[in-house]
Each structure stands twice: as C-alpha cells, then as structure tokens.
Amino acid sequence: MILNRRVLNRTTLDRQLLLSRAAITPAQAIERLVAVQGQEIDAPYIGLWTRLAAFTQDDLASLLYGKQVVRGSLLRGTQHLALADDYVWIRPIVQVILSRTRQAAFGRVTRDVDLEELATLARKHLAGRTLTRPQLRDLLRERWPDIEPMALSWSAQALVPIVHTPPNGIWGTGGATPFTLAEEWLGRPLDGTGSVERLVERYLAAYGPASVMDVQMWSGLTRLRAVVEGMPHLRKYQDTEGRVLYDLPDAPLAEEDVPAPVRFLPWFDNLIVAYADRGRLMTAEQRKAVCVGAVIYPTFLVDGTVGGMWDLKDGVLTVEPFHPLPDGVMEELAAEGARLMAFAGVEEGSIAWLPPRSSTTT
Predict the structure, then answer these.
(1) Exposure winner among 125, 144, 244, 304, fewest CB in 10 A?
(2) pLDDT above 90 (res 357)
C-alpha cells in the first residue's frame, strides 16, 4: 500500500496530539511521545501546552519535583524529559550513542585518561549529593590537572547515568546545571533488559509510519535495518518515492482530508527532529531555514505543515511566515499566539508580523 504525503502528515499529527488537543495527563503525553526534547528549558512546557487540552507550568514542575519525570541525556545523546519508568530502560540502550559522541568530541584530548577510572571517580564524587558541572569538573581536575576541564565534565556526563535535578528544568530557570546519579535520584537501578525492538515499537506508535532511516535519525542509533526487518509483525507500506515504511500492525491511518489547526511548536520540538525525510512536514528549502546546524528553530503549523517560524521575547511574539497567508489563517495564528503568550505569562503582549520569506521556501 502506497501512502501519500498528505496521509503521512495527518497520521503523524494525529499520533503527535496535534490534530486536536488531547484530554490526557502530562505524564501520559510524555509517555506517548517516548521522551520530550529538553535542550531549551522552556521548550517542553510549550510542546505539552500545544498538545494538551489542560496543562499548566506547575503540572510539569510537579512531575519533575516528584521524580515521576526526569531530565537527562537520552535520544541522540541530547537532553530529554522522560518518565522515570522509561528513563531506566532507555538510558542503557543509548549509552552507545553517548560514548560515540564523547569520543568524537573529546577522544583526542582524553586519550591519556582511563575512562573506567574517570567514571568510577565521577560516581564516587556524586554519591549521596548533587554537584554542579563546575564543581564536578574541579574535583576531576584534581586527578587529571593537565586535561581540558570541559572534556572531563562532559565525559563524566556521557559515561555515567546522570540526571539534572530541579530547579533545573523548571520554567524560566537558568544558571548552573546540577548533576546527581540517576539511580540515587530515582531510588532504583537502571534496567538493562530493555530492547531496541521495544524502542522501535514505541517510536512507531508516536511517529509512524516511518522508515529505518527515520528511526535512526530520531534515536541516534545506527545499523537498525536488521533489527526492524527482524520484527515480522510490523506492517509495511511505501511512500510515493518508493521508500519502505514500517508501522505497528494495529495502528490506524488518518484520513488525508482531516482538518489540521494552526499550532505553535517550540525549539527542538520532537515532531521536527523525528525523521530523516521531513517531506511530510516541510519542503527541503524550509528545512534549511528551520534546521540550522544543531539548532531547530520554533515553527508554526498551517494546514499541518510548517508555515513559518516564531519567537517570543520581551512580550512580543514575532511571526515570520514562509509564504503569504490568507487573512483567516492569520486570524487563527493571532488567536493561538494570544493563548501562547497567556500561557507564557505575558500580560500585555503584542504580535509582530514579519514579511513572508522569499518564494524559495514555499
């Protein structure tokens, strides 16, 4: 069965809770998404707000303080918020990504460092307490005074399951990043029995149908073709370019004519980074504007696809369309933008409309 981009788009939006705001709890939404991108502190809050029928900043803060949700390095080796129940089995699976990333970034400058000793020493320093990155770095430098300090602290973070404790991860917070051992914070050991197949199934439930390359892009794992092809219960489709797409056998497809409301997505939103081929969401030229190096800019959706970018600063919501928008769409965006500013605590905000970008992005 061949799936056109419109069906893929609507199915993706449905699974991402973006066709209508879902009447589920924040914890249920985080579980559905597997993990919520947390590179920017405020981004997960906006990502959940845009997906849920009822959500406040305190809802997520309570989950973080209550240890039901944790913030740490997971998919692609980047910061994510995940349910504690998911973190404990996903973190061991992605260790290979963290080790690979660490080696690429700091392998040369740490070539004379025994990494097993470094991990053991980092655990010893963190046992029973929370340290900031500078504090951990300075303690490690006592053992390796001639090694680049950043290489030591980042290596420790990659090699040892570390989570960032509140107030880190709370709306509007910044400053030094606190580290603590994940096992101690959660009060239980990590679960090394989780399988890559389980992770693939969770991905497909939230992002499918998708190709092997899509799964790899989202997770950061490589060489997954044999894994996915070795899951005979998965259903196979094709897209219009002939790529094989996989999905859960009982996962429904959305109708291509289902209306899709405007939505604001935050920095690094899960939806934008979940595919190698992002044609179901944006054009190649739009991708160049949205995905710049390691940065994924905030976007807004119009009729289910990326219609432009936005920013909220000093009480002004700046909206930059990629192409001219009908008056009705601009009214929808203005109304949704007002709700976004209210959620962000902006009391007297305004909207600044930038002119549409050149036609090369359409």
Answers:
(1) 244
(2) no
